């Protein structure tokens, strides 16, 4: 599962700017009529007219405007790796349902890879 986790970690960091832009968190600000605009409106109403510093909307807009910080990159990579690992484990479980030897098969596969 390590390979799947690594792919998920890298993929999530690479995809983050595109996803933020698609949601409406752009380098020019929050795009009108976007999901980000809806989030901003809700946050402002809940906060009495303004978006609180450090709120989710503020953090996402910052990331959309200038990119992810080192800490945010690490968090996104960790989350992406965890999700990919969980999905990989689920797919493996679906491929080998109720197989008590599944762990042995994975270990055998790993040993074969190491011998090559």
Automatic annotation (TrEMBL):
The keyword Transmembrane helix applies. It is found in: Membrane. The keyword Chloroplast does not apply. GO terms for biological process: intrinsic apoptotic signaling pathway; release of cytochrome c from mitochondria. InterPro entries: IFI6/IFI27-like, IFI6/IFI27-like_sf. Residues 92-116 are annotated as: Disordered. Keywords: Membrane, Transmembrane, Transmembrane helix. GO terms for cellular component: mitochondrial membrane. It is a multi-pass membrane protein. Coiled coil: none annotated. It comes from the Eukaryota. Residues 104-116 have a biased composition (Acidic residues). Its main location: membrane. The chain crosses the membrane at residues 6-32, 44-68, 74-96. Belongs to the IFI6/IFI27 family. This is Interferon alpha-inducible protein 27-like protein 2A. The lineage of its organism: Eukaryota, Metazoa, Chordata, Craniata, Vertebrata.
């Amino acid at each position: 599962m390590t390979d799947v986790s690594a792919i998920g970690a890298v993929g999530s960091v690479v995809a983050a700017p595109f996803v933020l832009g698609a949601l409406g968190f752009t380098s020019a600000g929050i795009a009108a009529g976007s999901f980000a605009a809806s989030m901003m409106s809700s946050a402002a109403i809940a906060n009495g007219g303004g978006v609180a510093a450090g709120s989710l909307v503020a953090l996402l807009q910052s990331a959309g405007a200038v990119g992810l910080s080192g800490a945010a990159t690490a968090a996104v990579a960790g989350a992406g790796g965890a999700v990919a690992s969980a999905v990989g484990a689920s797919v493996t479980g679906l491929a080998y349902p109720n197989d008590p030897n599944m762990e042995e098969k994975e270990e055998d596969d790993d040993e074969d890879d190491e011998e090559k």
